[in-house]
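Re: your question from the hallway

Yes, I did run it. Sequences:
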Amino acid sequence: MKFLNVLEGEAAWPPPLWLMRQAGRYLPEYREVRAKAGDFISLCLNPALAEEVTLQPIRKFGFDAAILFSDILILPMALGQGLRFAEGEGPRLPPLEDISLLKLERAAGVYTPVIETVSRLRQSLPTDTALIGFAGGPATVASYMLDGQGGGFYRTKELSYARPGFVRDVLNILTDATIEYLSAQVDAGADCVMLFESWAGIFPPAQFREFVIEPNRKISAALKARHSGLRMIGFPRLAGLMLGEYAYGTGMDAVGLDSVTDIRAARAVCPPGMALQGNLDPLLLKLGGEALEAAVRALLEDVRGFPHIFNLGHGITPDVPQAHVARLVELVRQSK
Ligand code: CP3
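Structure:
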């Protein structure tokens, strides 16, 4: 599988391609299935419908990888924390006060439907399309749990100084739960797994080491010990100058890059031969036209000869025209 070969360090050309949030609201067929499911969480927990929306962008655009349709916040919900998605507002959780609310033993029973979605997908996907399992990174998931929503994560930041022991306890539970959750996805047929540490960039260096690198390292070490040959992608978004330490320190096979990271600078600080993933600005996919064409060509030139997975630097937004996605796929695929 071309996608997995690149994770092993092969410089395939043209590079394999998928897009973060490739299943989503920019597709009318997604909106239709989501309406049928009723709400977003019900869609994540309905294996037949989650399978269908995972497959939609594969059928339409032929991406090299499919990502399981679920959300990083399903795991805290499975551990016992409340979760709802307010229409047009994003996730809302009751800010965590008491760690005894989180019950590791109950989680697997709640996320069973997600694992069933993985099994169904491995059966229904073309054999040359990689299936990516995923979870949120512990620091990112903890940030949503402690603040109760996205945004500045001010409570998380205050707690990380004022009550570091509390934050550590939450991270430890999440690290253990994430190992079990991802391990179940691999057993069910995921070909590789990605850890979305999307808010890694809010932590200063000492905390970045303790709250981001160390839990990510534990997760990759535990999973690789259990599943020999498993490949993992880490996405420490907005890591800035901490990227190299993250890449060396976590044992990931590849790192995802956000759009503000210079890809050559990233390559210089990562282990030689490590695959990189990214990092087109999602706004260009909305704009299309000459701006998109020029940026795609420039990115392709920057990654030529290196193991690379073509992607955006963050998820597709709902306002992206499908024709622009089709054009992006064409530009990458036709690249000589
Ligand atoms: O196609 C895919 O990439 C797979 C599915 C996926 C979703 N969320 C579906 C989703 C994945 C991998 C995620 C990860 C995720 N979820 C992250 C990490 C990546 C990132 O974007 O930084 C985060 C931070 C979340 C939490 C989350 N979920 C937020 C902040 C939101 C609201 C933002 C928005 O776009 O509305 C969600 C909702 C969400 N997750 C949607 C989808 C398709 C939109 C829900 C809908 O249909 O209304």
